[in-house]
């Protein structure tokens, strides 16, 4: 209620001082209530300033100059998250009201193919508007790979980034195949499998050196050790750029886009329980595509850009309910081996 509203209320009979009030006793009319009304009005104005600060970034603004999109990427990276991020960034690029993007990262990594697609989608977006990454807890392996095109990487002191490399199951020798139509129809041998894994690992390292070579204080050999760094150390060695919170990253993105006042649009492309779920087993890493999986819902992962300690063991999974999960995984791996034969 404004002070003008209070003044208009004084014209009503109920607002007039009582004619029978004893001399020396304060009146029960509006003059006594006016300070309370004024305090309430001031409180309302202050509350409005707080709301404007949250919505627009600068107190007192009546309209925003533009929008910063905050895209949350959480959990292991697999095909669904990759497709979702591509779609979200495609929509963002087509939306003229969005001027900058902040990637809110918390992932141990995941599969190479969706990671490469996410990397390319972020790279394309970064050519059209500022893109800033903000690591909340962990952005390792594929998580680090995909955010490399960002203009700056923000970390908390306790955040963890790095693990540049490939986790892969040891190549298994295959039995001979009878009657192949050509020499390569036999499938890859152990040497070829090792070479393929080495190539993927080198692509990851090369990308890091290309994107951040002028900032990283470590040699290529040191990067290839796949070490994970705390946020405070990652700023020192060049894996990250600045210590700061998500709000700091948002402010930086807005400033890079030339926005004094801005809205925040939150988008989410993943989650900790989004399928597939990655798990470690005696057969290596597997991807589980159902909460109550059958053999068809489990696939061995030959190569992954993932920080393995952040991937739970099969016995620790709570999101998967199957009384004979070990047997199902063993059968799935066995079927996969047989399926590799041409």
Automatic annotation (TrEMBL):
GO molecular function: serine-type peptidase activity
Top-level taxon of the source organism: Archaea
TM stretches of this protein: 34-59
Domain Peptidase S49 stretches: 125-170
Region (Disordered): 1-29, 166-188
Record-level GO BP terms: proteolysis
Protein keywords: Hydrolase, Membrane, Protease, Serine protease, Transmembrane, Transmembrane helix
Record PANTHER family: PEPTIDASE S49, PROTEASE SOHB-RELATED
Protein family per UniProt: Belongs to the peptidase S49 family.
Protein name, UniProt field: Protease-4
Organism this protein belongs to: Halovenus aranensis
